[in-house]
Each structure stands twice: as structure tokens, then as C-alpha cells.
Design a protein that fits this description.
By secondary structure, the protein is of the alpha/beta class. The protein has 8 helices and 12 strands. The chain is about 30% helix and about 30% strand. A 5-stranded parallel β-sheet has the order 6-5-7-4-8. The chain has a 4-stranded antiparallel β-sheet with strand order 9-10-12-11, with no helix packed on it. Strands 1-3-2 form a 3-stranded antiparallel β-sheet. This is Helix-turn-helix domain-containing protein.
């Protein structure tokens, strides 16, 4: 079934509020104010979205049978089931769509004491504090603050997928620039985070400049831009 413009508007508004403001539950008044839809149009959209499984609604008898609506983010972003361990770094102020997707779809979400629980409690299926052990489950996410908790989770990094809720460049590269090495080869341009092997790199690459990027929690990383040295013919 195709979504109407009104239904799409409701979903986009709810998803925006979930991702950028951490909002989980919406009243009818919240949705009316946020979307600008007429009462009749909004009511019809909610009924249809509920039937299609995009949202769920709960009645509060104590408040005059008032309904609260919640977006089912896993329905909005259909992806294969997750497997294994995920480290979700929430040192920044905002959860990225990737972070929201992982937190909402894994079997168990563990969190450290340095993570504001309000950010994630409305998303997780099963939420528990992280006490140093990973439970038996098909998929587990440990939500942590890299600025304060990295030593607690560093031992898990080799067998986990790292989800960085910081910026688009981190997402494009697939690893946080300030938490792990980056080694990209873009034909003649090579970008690498400075490390112990920088001397070996300079044997075959020339430094042509630097790039400063924002990483997790507002930290900055300076990357070297190297160009492969052309071999001179004898």
C-alpha cells in the first residue's frame, strides 16, 4: 500500500523528532502542531499508519482515554536482521540514523553510566546497564561515550562493528576518525590518520596538505593528505 502525502509527513516528522530530539511518544496535539495537518486528515493518517504497522498507539485511561503514539523505526527502515556485537558511540549530542537503527533493532542494548538513558530508552527492545559482560544473544549493542568510556569497551573493539554518531565523514569512511586508524586510497590521493608507520608512508608518498575534521564529541583530528610519488624512469 502506498503512503499518502499526509501519512509521509507524519512519519517524517516523527522520525525527525526521534533522531534529533530523542522524542519517543507523541500526543495527537504534538503531531497536529508539528505537521500542520487538519484534525480530520491527521486522524485518518494515524489510523492508516497504525494498520500498516508504522506506528503503535496506547491509551491512557487516567487521562481521559488519551492516546500516545510511537513510531516503529524498524518498520520505517527495513533492513536485514543484525548479527553480532555493535559499539555505538554517543559522545555527540545527536543520534545518527545509523545509531537509531542499530539501537532499535538489536536484541539487547547495554549502556554505560555516562550515557543519558533518555536518549535510548524509548528505542531499545531490551535495555540493561553494562557491567562488563556481554549476554548471549544474536545481536547486542553497547552504547557508550568514547570520551569517558573507551577503556571499558576497547577490548571488545576487535570483534565489534563500530557505529559512530558524530558526522557524515565518519559514516562515509566507516570508522571514527578520532577513535581508529583510517586508511583510504582514492587513486592518487591517500588519506591516513597519523600513526607509528607514518615514516614508512613517506617513503612512497609526498605530503601535499592537511585536513582538519570534527570527530566524536566535538574532538578534532588533523589528517595528512598524501600523494603517491611517481617513480622516475631510469
Amino acid at each position: 500500500m502506498r503512503l499518502t502525502p499526509a501519512q509521509r509527513l507524519v512519519l517524517y516528522y516523527m522520525a525527525f523528532e526521534v533522531v534529533y530530539h530523542g522524542k519517543t511518544w507523541f500526543t495527537f496535539e504534538d503531531l497536529k502542531r508539528g505537521t500542520g495537518l487538519a484534525v480530520r486528515t491527521l486522524r485518518a493518517a494515524l489510523v492508516s499508519l497504525r494498520k500498516q504497522g508504522y506506528i503503535e498507539s496506547y491509551m491512557l485511561p487516567s487521562q481521559g482515554r488519551r492516546l500516545l503514539h510511537r513510531l516503529k523505526i524498524e518498520k520505517l527502515i527495513p533492513e536485514p536482521e543484525l548479527q553480532g556485537l555493535y559499539l555505538v558511540d554517543v559522545a555527540g549530542d545527536v543520534l545518527t540514523p545509523d545509531a537509531v537503527s542499530v539501537i532499535s533493532r538489536v536484541d539487547v542494548v547495554l549502556y554505560t553510566e555516562n550515557v543519558p538513558i533518555k536518549k535510548i530508552e524509548g528505542l531499545a527492545k531490551r535495555l540493561e546497564p553494562y557491567k562488563g559482560e556481554v549476554p548471549e544473544a544474536s545481536s547486542v549493542a553497547i552504547v557508550f561515550n568514547s570520551l569517558l568510556d573507551w577503556e571499558r569497551v576497547a577490548g571488545l573493539a576487535p570483534r565489534a562493528r563500530y557505529i559512530c554518531a558524530s558526522n557524515a565523514l565518519d559514516k562515509a569512511i566507516g570508522v571514527c576518525l578520532t577513535c581508529g586508524d583510517v586508511d583510504l586510497d582514492l587513486r592518487t590521493i591517500r588519506i591516513k590518520s597519523p600513526g607509528a608507520d607514518i615514516g614508512n608512508l613517506l617513503d612512497s608518498y609526498d605530503i601535499v596538505g592537511t585536513i582538519t575534521v570534527d570527530g566524536c564529541g566535538g574532538r578534532k583530528a588533523e589528517l595528512l593528505v598524501l600523494k603517491k610519488r611517481e617513480l622516475k624512469s631510469k
